[in-house]
Amino acid sequence: MSHDALISELALANRLLVNEDVLDTFGHVSCRHPDRPDRYFLAAALAPVTVGPADILEFDLDGALLTPSDRPLYSERVIHSEIYRARPDVAAIVHHHAPAVLPFCVSGQRLVPVTQTGAAMGPNVPFWDSADDFGDTNLLLTRPEEGQSLARALGPDWVVLMKRHGATVVGRSLREMVFRAIHSTSNARTQMQAMLMGGVDALTPGEIALAGGDLKPSPVNRTWNHALRRLHLLESGITG
Ligand code: MN
User: Fold this and answer.
1) What is the pLDDT of residue 239?
2) Tens digit of each residue's pLDDT (9 = 90 or more) over 73-86
3) pLDDT tens digits, one per residue of 119-150
């Protein structure tokens, strides 16, 4: 994929993850620079639904801005910097506060795969509490050590819940991350509804390994195309 095409897909990922109820006013999406693993792309501090290709900026792994710009920046970009530093296999990240996932972040109830696509979360969804390392904070991650603590909690996994805050989802590609973000959010919705009906029968470890162990391009691209068409249907009706 060309550089321009990747930037265009990153901008689209911002908007389609809003349309899929993963992102809202806040939250942010990034992808690693394909030729410079020590750099990544992230939008200026905007509502994700408004992000276009011209809003995408380039950063190094210290979160320093490399694109000449005086635009406001996301204060929580240490999440991206420190996960890219800790996880060479990760090529894309979304940090979000999806309403379907927040009840798990508040209650401490474990998020477990209960659907075939939910298996993309992997066998373990770790739970990070900023208070364990930092005591009382404003809940935003703005210092490198906070990003490092979150990256340690994520470990080798794909989704980390953040207590009283939200979640961070990673992938080996932008589209894989989008697949995992959409389906982990819908898994959370289904799991909570099942809990209201009396209980949850999660996938077995063997089922999780078979269903989610190695995401193939076909379902990943199908989810991307589905979400993209839904976004286009929405945006084609918007005139101003
Ligand atoms: Mn946040």
Assistant:
1) 63
2) 999 999 999 999 99
3) 999 999 999 999 999 999 999 999 999 999 99
Report helix angle 174-196 to 3-19, nearest 10: 10
SS3 content of the chain, % helix, strand, coil (to 5): 45, 15, 40
Measured in Å, residue 234 CA sits from the centre of ligand 1 at 26
Distance 198 CA to ligand 1 centre (A): 31
Residue 240 predicted with pLDDT over 70: no
pTM above 0.90, yes or no: yes
Given strand 166-171, what is the order of strands in its sheet?
A: 56-60, 39-43, 28-32, 92-96, 166-171, 159-162, 127-128
What is the 8-class DSSP label of residue 72?
Answer: -
Looking at residue 214, what is its pLDDT? 87
Task: Quote the ligand 1 centre to 207 CA distance (angstroms).
Answer: 32
Choosing from 9, 20, 76, 146, the catalytic residue is 76
- Rounded to the nearest whole angstrom, what is the distance from the C-alpha of residue 32 to the centroid of ligand 1? 20
Structural domains of the chain sorted by starting position, each given as residue range(s) with its CATH number in brackets: 3-235 (3.40.225.10)
Instruction: For the chain, give the mean pLDDT.
Output: 96
Structure tokens at 73: 């920046």
Q: Assess whether 76 carries a catalytic annotation.
A: yes
Instruction: Give me the phi and psi of 197, to 5 degrees please.
Output: -85, -5
State the residue for tokens 């697949």: 179
Q: Taking each helix axis from N to C terminus, what angle separates 217-235 and 3-19, rounded to the nearest 10 degrees?
A: 70
